[in-house]
Design goal:
227 residues; Rossmann fold; eight-stranded mixed sheet; 7 helices; 38% helix
Length: 227
């Protein structure tokens, strides 16, 4: 049985990834809360550092994975003039960039040959500057840079694939709560995103190493546009 490691497996998108993969994969979720649908959970303590999180993962992981998928993340607004810009940046780095670094770090030891490593970026940040979302934009820009570096495969399996998702707005409970008046029909279905990633993980239409996939939502399906 193939194995997937999902960082952020209890989040809005993470739960969909776990649900879609578990039909015929063994799935390990890494998060601050348990996902009962996962085969195995590695629980992290919010009071610890990412160095401690990495140590916890290394101690608890006993096998290699065919796919390592980072779907942890968060959103925040605020310009450079905001008095809380430094606090905002600390938060955005901790929820967006550091989990992606953790995924890459673990892939060095726990990703199988020909495995798939998936990070989550942001289409809006990839395509343009976001001065009104400065901390968020910086954290996602750094994630995109990390993906480019990981695609060089230094320390990773020499024939693995690194791919980065660039979603617009994903239809998660958190996003609905934050924007209750939005037109949810225009938002990307998380199960469809999970299905796309699973297809890649199983070797179907897998993108080239180093690809960035803008996830366009058209006719109730995800269409990846590679940038």
């Amino acid at each position: 049985m193939k194995r997937a490691l999902v960082i952020g497996g209890s989040g809005g998108l993470g739960r969909s990834v776990v649900e879609v993969f578990k039909s015929n994969w063994s799935v390990t979720s890494i998060d601050f809360s348990e996902n009962s649908s996962a085969t195995t959970n590695i629980l992290l303590s919010p009071s610890k550092s990412f160095s401690a999180y990495a140590n916890t993962c290394r101690v608890n992981l006993t096998s290699k994975f065919d796919a390592i998928i980072c779907v942890a993340g968060g959103f925040g607004m605020g310009p450079i003039s905001d008095p809380e810009v430094f606090e905002q940046l600390d938060k955005m780095l901790s929820v967006n960039l550091y989990p992606a670094i953790l995924a890459g770090h673990l892939a060095c030891s726990f990703l199988n040959e020909e495995g798939l490593l998936v990070l989550t970026g942001a289409a809006a940040v990839f395509k343009d500057v976001t001065p009104g979302l400065l901390a968020y934009g910086l954290s996602k820009t750094a994630t995109h840079s990390l993906a480019l570096n990981l695609a060089k495969r230094e320390g990773l399996p020499s024939n693995c694939t690194v791919a980065t998702l660039l979603p617009d707005m994903i239809d998660t409970p958190g996003n609905r709560s934050a924007m209750p008046d939005a037109d949810f029909s225009k938002w990307t279905n998380p199960n469809s995103v999970a299905g796309l990633v699973k297809m890649w993980a199983e070797g179907y239409n897998r993108p080239a190493n180093g690809s960035f996939a803008h996830l366009k939502w058209e006719n109730n399906q995800v269409i990846p546009e590679f940038l």
